Amino acid sequence: MKHTTLATALIASWALFGISGTDAQAAACMKVTLTGTQGGPPVFNGQAGSGTLVQFGNEENKCAGVNLQFDTGRGTTQQLSKLKLPVGKLNAIFLTHMHSDHTEGLADMMQLRAIYKSLKARLEQQNRSEWLSEEMAILESRGTYIVEPEDAWKRLKMRARKPIELAITKELAAWREAEAKSRNQPRGRIIKDDAIYELASQQPENVQALGRMRALPKGFDRSKFADAIIAAVKRAKSIPKHQLPVVPRPPRRPEGASAVVELLKVLLKLVCEQNGVASKIIANVDDLEKIADSDTADVAALKGWRRELFGEAALQVKAGQLGFALSNRKKVVLVPIDA
Question: Is 252 within the bounds of a domain?
C-alpha cells in the first residue's frame, strides 16, 4: 500500500509542479533520502521516526526543484536541517497512514512552514537576508562547536591568581572536555565551572577533601570522577616551578576608557532602537570595553553585518569623528564632527 501511495504521489507531483518530460529527460535527476527509519511508538537510541524525502529537478537546481516529504515521524525537522533544507522549501507533505510514528512531527513542520515564509519575507523586505546567512554559517561550522581539550580552559573566566592555580585549571578543564566528549554530555554534567575554580584554589590532596568542597555535590567524593580529579590536580602540581604557565594579566586600560564605554552604550541603544534590533545581539558590556581598549578587538560587533550596523559608528565615536545631537528637540541623531 505504501509503495502505491508513493508512486501515485510522485506522478501527481510531476504534473502538479510543472516538470515536463523534456526537462526530466535532460536532467534525469531524482534523489531519495530516508529522514527516519524508526518504527514506533517506542523510541530507540534517539533515532528519527519514519520519513522519506524525495527530490527531483535538474542539474541547475541540484536536483532540488521539487521537494516532497513522505511521512513526518518524530525528529523529521532536525533531519531536514541536517540536509540544509528548510521546512518552508517543501512543496508538499504526504502521509502514507496515520500511525503516530509517521505523523508525530507534522505539527512542527506545519508551523515552521508558515513561520519560515513569514520571516523570510520580512528579512528580504528589510534587506537582512545576508545577516541570516552570516549567522547560519557560524552555526553550521564545525569549528563553532569543536574545542580541543588543551584549549578548554580558555572558555573559562580567568580567576587564577597564581601559576599553580592556572596549571590546575588547565588540567581540570582538559579532563572535563575529554570526559564530556567521550560520554556525549554537556560539560556542566561532568563538573561545573565553579567547581573547577574551587579545586584550583583549594588544591585537594585526596578524594576525602572533595567531600568538603561547596561547589561539588554532596557525596561527590564517592563518585566515579573523584579519582580522576585528584589525578588531574596531582599532574598539575608535579609540573616544575619554572615550567608553570604564566597567569595572563588584563591589559592596562587607556585613560578615559570608562567614559568611552558610556558613549558606546548610548550609541548601541540608539542604533538598536533605530533598527529594531535587541542590543544583546550586537554587543554586551564586555564587548564595548574591548572596543574602547582597542580598534581591532576580537568581538562580533566589529565583524560582518554587526560592524556595518554598529561597529563602524562605534570606532568613529571613539575617534571623535561622530557625535550626538538633538534634532528639532525631538530626536537624537548621529552627526559627523569636522576635524
Answer: no
